[in-house]
Write a structure and sequence with these properties.
- The complex is a heterodimer of chains A (637) and B (247).
- With 637 residues, chain A is of the alpha+beta class.
- Among the domains of chain A are: 135 residues, Flavocytochrome C3, Chain A, domain 1 (Alpha-Beta Complex); 126 residues, Up-down Bundle (Methane Monooxygenase Hydroxylase, Chain G, domain 1), CATH 1.20.58.
- Chain A has 17 helices and 22 strands.
- A five-stranded parallel β-sheet of chain A has the order 6-2-1-10-18. Chain A has a five-stranded antiparallel β-sheet with strand order 12-16-15-13-14.
- In chain A, helix 5 packs across helix 12, helix 10 runs antiparallel to helix 11 and helix 15 runs antiparallel to helix 16.
- The two termini of chain A are 39 Å apart.
- Chain B is α+β, with helices and mostly antiparallel strands.
- Chain B folds into two domains: 109 residues, Beta-grasp domain (Ubiquitin-like (UB roll), Roll); 116 residues, Orthogonal Bundle (Fumarate Reductase Iron-sulfur Protein, Chain B, domain 2).
- In chain B, helix 2 packs antiparallel against helix 7, helix 3 runs antiparallel to helix 5 and helix 5 packs across helix 9.
- The longest helix of chain B has 16 residues.
- Classes of the chains: A alpha+beta (637), B alpha+beta (247).
- The interface between A and B is large, with 83 and 78 residues.
Amino acid sequence: MILDGKCPSGPLAEKWTKHCRDMKLVNPSNKRKYKIIVVGTGLAGASAAATLGELGYNVESFCYQDSPRRAHSIAAQGGINAAKNYANDGDSIYRLFYDTIKGGDFRSREANVYRLAEISNNIIDQCVAQGVPFARDYAGYLDFRSFGGTQVSRTFYARGQTGQQLLLGAYSAFSRQVKLGTVKVHPRSEMLDLVVVDGEAKGITVRDMVTGEISCYAGDAVCLCTGGYVNVYYLSTNAQGCNVTANYRAYKKGAFFANPCYTQIHPTCIPVTGDHQSKLTLMSESLRNDGRVWVPLKKGDKRAPHEIPENERDYYLERKYPSFGNLAPRDISSRAAKEACDEGRGVGPSGLGVYLDFAEAIERLGENVIRARYGNLFEMYERITGEDAYKQPMRIYPALHYAMGGLWVDYNLQSNLPGLFVLGEANFSDHGANRLGASALMQGLGDGYFVIPYTIANYLAQTKPGKVSAEHPEFKKSISDVETMTKKLLSINGKKTVKEFHRELGRVMWENVGMARSEESLKNAIKRIPEIRAEFWENVKVTGSGNDLNQDLERAGRVADFLEFGELLARDALNRNESCGGHFRVEYQMPDGEAKRDDENYCYVAAWGFRGTDKEPELHKEPLEFESVNLGIRSYK
Amino acid sequence: MNLTLFVWRQKKPAEPGRLEQYTAKNVSRDMSFLEMLDEVNEGLVKEGREPIAFDHDCREGICGTCSQVINGIPHGGQERTTVCQLHMRKFKDGDTIYIEPWRAKAFPIIKDLIVDRSALDRIIQAGGYISNHTGGSADGNAILIPKPDADVAMDAAECIGCGACVAACPNGSAMLFTAAKVTQLAMLPQGRVEAAKRVCVMTEAMLKEGFGNCTNHYECQAACPKGIKVSFIAKLNREFIKAQVSQ
């Protein structure tokens, strides 16, 4: 099927304004008759629930955390982009749009990205009004800084905790609506199914994670704001609870999954120390401004870093990319680190790490300057590794941290299933094959505050409120399906733990579908994953019962979905015979190792439809048409 | 290293709980505290026993989910560090470690080390916000905020809502948590409009939830993983008195 993104016609800069004018509205007194289900309370979910509640809709909000304030948006460090041009350095809506679409390697939808740039300024104003304590300069104006992939300063920030502050801003607006009674909040509740009636999304099935009760909620529309899926790799910078379950189960009910192979790997994370490792911690990329990356020249050199003389070190980024050196783009430096380790030259106990050395910068600038620039990062590094990076080089290694892919949505953020809207990282729409820094926060809040209130009204205005109740047989069936799966998981009583399966899947994903993918490795993953999945359903051990708080059971359900989703991700990567952004196929590269796109054959969104667990998914294409930009080579040289 | 653990196990809110003994074997110095517990739990699952339930999520010290009292100290006593950032190199072979949930009247235990902290959400819901609307906001630079004020607001805003302050306080008070939010918004011009009402309704909600009052023990500040200062409680008191006088 050829999918239609439903972008409005007309000049790029006028599309959204025109669309807002054309969309239908819901009368204020009718809004309270509609119930909207919002799943997830991160930037997208909290801002959407708060805004829709304020407009007068009946909102039911669900999150797996014990409080809506803890969603993983909270961990974002760097900042949020906006085209304010406060710096007077030539920024504009068009430039933010262009940087974002180029950063995404020309694999995103033009109209969506332009709209995002357009509303970016409103987001900053909104957050300031909420009391988000953005950094200020000495005259009291908003401070800003530059960030990767751009030549202007447009990133607003709140120390190193911008995500936390923006989320707490959205959470406060959300809390106000809870008090006013327009938003009902269900914490510690996990969505386990989407209910589809006559082709439209009309509700969800949820497990109360404290009592174990499985129940249904009917609504006139469902918004999934359920985040990204990179925990399919087991280790990532995501929170432990981040999962693909809500999105994957919507996929199984007919929603298309778009571009799952677009995953982003961050080059500067703290390396793995052993099998016990449960997560990876990201260190700000700014460290590469002063740190030099190196590994020993010789394989298996186990000497301490200070014992390795200068001429026996390989500053491989400076050697391979003399013009960019240690500031080579994220994907290139990540792959170079992996290559060095694959050659047996990795450092640290596991051999999976490279040095990021500040000795030269400390000698040149003095320790005080380095402390002033990166003191908090050095402190964090010491807390985790017990090592003092002023005295010895840091060890870093790349890690998964963001999913550009997600459920397919049109310009209205509506999936192919009417009534199902998908916001934030959970959808695929704005970042193409690679996301630029400080853009995730912008998208989450943009979708929730300024897009969904308009587009959901257009859908609701054309549907009768309360059309379907939870008494409908589809809801009963959904509850019974979820209960069956729960019982099954608890009854296998095998020998291996859920974690062992997850770790095994993660290893297959990292080795075969990680930074560098090939036809052979992808075929291997597509063969291996179903084997692990089959063993899971024969041999997993899940303890406890379904009738109370059972973290083992929660994890088992999520891993069961990852075991199917991982295969879908690999199939998407195999289908895409080109390299673009975060998707690097070794067969398709420029002589200098840059990604080689194939615009002739792959300038489309790959949206996959579910046909059965052990069946190949169906590929639907949405051609990407560029009316305003020329498809260029993504070069930062 | 090998460790002896005494962990609070409690099946249900209404059932009595008790400390149970476990052994953590071959613990690596590089493990985080929660990874050490993960390994203990893997062992329990393999034996068909129920793993220890504990709250955790981001494991990078920012979400505020993890909540354990370790050897009597919320978050374990390393300065400005959450449990998830505490690493085993702070312990030594043969150590005995006591692990308990947050204990406070306003935080009922759900299971094992997991407590219900929704009372903190209700304090915010009572008025811990600026009542602005989505849309229609003035340009971000229309409100100038002196940098020192913005910095104090940010210091207060760093609170992660973990509840360690409550667990550390002999009165089970949530004054530090409430004060942090009151201060953040009271420092900003856009938050001044509702400042008097806010401090009253939040304080009232705090008392209604069963949190105790502040009697200046300062245990909250010592336990806070984000370094939130008790001077914010003074700020809360000042705001509260001002609001009472002006009413």
